[in-house]
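Re: duplicated header lines in exported structure tokens

Our pipeline writes sequence and tokens for each protein into one text file. With two proteins the header for the second block appears twice in some exports. Here is an export where it did not happen, for reference. First protein block:
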Amino acid sequence: MRRSLWRLGAPRRLLLSGSLLTAVLVGSPAFSHQFSAPTDVIYAAGALVSVQPDTATVEAGSTVLVAIALDAPEGSIGAWTVDVAYDPAVVRPLACVSIVDAAAALCSINPGDGAAIVRAIGAAASGIGSTSLARITFEAVGVPGATSALTITVSTMANTEGDDLGADAVNGSVTIAG
């Protein structure tokens, strides 16, 4: 007697893509069967990188602290390179600190290429999820009323296997009061 591979409780292969769950049950007599959770699920991860707070107002000569925030599913991000461009006539970065637990991470100000950027880079073998990638302290050096955009460029956002995931970005700004 030949046994069916699609008996009740047999493992099924599932693909999760966004909010759509597709189950391929080739040869299954009906969709109404209850079955155990699969062991081979493929998850589609998305990431959002933002400046927090997204807008800040500071007195001339004072400092403001902003974070490069990551919003992603837990354990989904294995490597990142994120740049934050700023207007050096309005703000000057004084410090940048990487604060990611369980990762090798660095933050650098104007990393050798002459551009006015702060760069956060890192890698985490076990992956990370939502966290702050770095904290940047800016000094307001411009005239009252001046605004500097804080423009994010994500050049690397990869999973723990090295596959590029891409990321959306939400920019921010710092305005000098007055």
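Second protein block, exported in the same file:
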Amino acid sequence: MKNKLLSSLSLDSGSLLCRDGSFSSLGHCVEKKEKNLLSFIDEEVYLDTVNNNKNISSIICTPSLEKKLTSNIGLITSENPRLTFFQIHNSLAPSSNSAKKPSIIHDSSSINSKYVSKFDVEIGMNSFVDQNVVIHPGVRIGNDVHISSGCVIGGDGFEYKRYGNYILQVMSKNLIFTHLQNSFHSSIFHHLKISKLN
């Protein structure tokens, strides 16, 4: 995802932009791999984690936790930081009408399955996809990867979050990108799904 400013977001009436900041990915405050992260904190137990995680560039927290944050990062306060976080997540999720790119399969790879999506799949060099494998859109497979028969990779995925009497559907249509790294070998009946904003 391209760099976004907090000030460019549409916030609900219960949220307040206190300090502008930028982010290029969303994740939980314990995330160590993603950089320039927008996260949330709704419990004091995670204060040290947030204050010591240099990858967090912007945070959503309760007004009472705001004063306890030691880092000078982008800040949104909300009575329900988790709900605000997932509302932002949903607003950034591409619609199912987003432009689809034709799948790219390297000429040196061998595909023996009829169930590889014609859109939004990339398969690198010297990879092998066995029979009866299902590969959904949004999957990137590296070089020298062997996918055994019966595997299901990727998918639309979804999740629901309950907030009192309110239920929020967390959108992930076209946000599931499964990355199988070079020289990966799958065993039979793996179902692989890794969420990442691209």
